[in-house]
Fold:
Amino acid sequence: MDNQKRDFIELEHDMGKKLESLTDAHVDEEFKNRLWEDLKSRYNETNPQKTNKTCNIDNKTPKGNKKGLLIKWGSIAAAVLFLSSLFVTTFLPLRKANDVAMSPLLFPMQAFAAGGSDLSLDAGFDTLREVKFEVKGDLPKAPQKGQIFCLQNRLTTVDDYMSMAKAIGMKNPEIVGKDPNDSVSQFFSIISGKHYLMVWPKSGIWDYEYRIYELNEFENDLKEDEEGNVKEDMEDGKEIDKESAKDIAKQWLKKLGQLPNEEYKMTVEDTRDSDIPVALGFSVVLVPETGPDANKSHDANKPVEMGRQIRMLIGTDGQVISASYNWPELKETSEIPLADYDEAIESLNRGEGRFDAKEYFGEKGVAFIQDVEIGYQLAYSIDYTPYLVPIGIFSGKLTSQGTTKSFTAYIPMLKKPGIKNAANFEIRTEFPEYLKEANLIAERQHSLTQSELESLMTFFGMEKKSQEEDLINGTKGEELHYTSYDYGWLYRGQKHTTTKQVSEEKAVEIAQDIAKKIPVLPGTLGKPWIYPTGEEEFYTIGLPFLYDGIPVVTPNYPGYVSHIIISLYKDGTLWSVDSRMHMEAGKKVELISPQEAKQKLLENEYIMTIDDLFGYFYGDRFAADKSTVTKIELVYIPCHPELARSEEYTLMYRFSGKTIISGNEMDFAAFVKAQK
Structure:
């Protein structure tokens, strides 16, 4: 394992200590509001969306997967600062290739690959899963056809969820975040006191939290003894046991009308017995006992995270602390053609699918496949209809660094479109100027940012009062410090109150002027955008950094990896500047022409994102009625898109525009490797 990868793992393990040391530098209302919006945006993107519509098997397409919120909200929010996720959610649109056309089905899965670190299309998305899959012995013949199950949701309207909120015990519940112009919003919350119900109504998915603690209260409850073991600060009183937790979960779901009608298996874990107790109580998980997505794992006690499930956390006093629901009901079924096992293994080798092995952290190895069976995974259509779709479940032994351990790998078994330009691309724009060569980039060393703090302090007119490591405190309450989670820096000015207000246009002009005058920017500035924080006290404006005129982009909001964010009070007075993910130039490389990139696009040699579906997928998985390209540009993208940090970045041509799938028009971006 190289030093960079080891740093990623150590970063995750040390996250709690780092957060604790940064608390004083980050606690303010503007920061918390911005963090909330950022987290909610990411959370929406990584959760499946579905709706209770007629299941027309020949005219659909699906979305993503989600995990329940089983730890305190503050802990989740803090974690985002350092590591967005160890696993990226990737969506693979697939199309049925016989007489009856099925529009794409979208699958949540990992995208780790064996191969080089330059994002080559034949190697996958990154190097975190450096595993080569080989067959040991003979596998059974794959079935040529399989069943796809259309599902439906019980609750569909706002009134349905308001009734459920009242059944929970929420008094005078208030709806927050619903678009008044949208009869069926994609996300809203229902709030009452410390009860929070987060709803994705098109999906039928919901999360409930009883926020009995604020973050600082939760931290006080997790006290360590002299040996560093976490102890629960319990009040005197009767504690429930596992069997009581089962009964409480069952009755609670029944009261809400959400107890599954199908047979289910319920497991209970005392979280106080786990290695890392993230909450104090009992974790309850319900999964199907029968049906296509019933657990077929060799480990009968292992929950199937790719199928339907309900997760709950019940406190030791019997209080339901949180619940996460994702259990659409079976409705219809249809027969579809399946890929063979050779094609499925090829997909695993290029980084698709999901790979599970205990204590595996990305080391090189060989996974010897000994067995395979067909299971089912949740997938979603563009109109949010849920489906259960066949997947291949491969198992065997992983040999890595002199050790051997069991593994399981999962991959969808639907066939690829099998034709070139299945997306039906049409170019409706001019090609950009051909740059024959350009610099690669890498994340800048943090020592460079540290060395710039004195210059920045002078620019912001700060007089140093004190300094702790990389945090400089000013005499007027200002703060300037190096942000270790992205190797950038953050300045916060004096607190300010005002009744005056400048226009949004004037605020953008002021922000641009401030940004242009900062003496130590890592690149030039691109076009600004308004950052929607939901905060009435501030205007927040973002500007991307360009490196030789080229932006560093991501499919996640706000669309840029390397950028600067400036927050102004409503009267235009500066509040904060947050400069993120600084890059530095590497070696020059030769590039193919935009016209050559177009040819690769038409031959399905690209990776792609659709709308707000978060994550890349391969072009040979995609099919559409029509895809109109309205912009072509040269960009950088991270080679490790699933991590908050990436070892390397790659030059790509981005073809973007509108695609039409089953009558639904969506934004898309297709990326063709630009380096020769």
About this structure: The first helix runs from residue 3 to 13. The CA atoms of residues 15 and 140 lie 45 Å apart. The first strand starts at residue 131 and ends at 135.
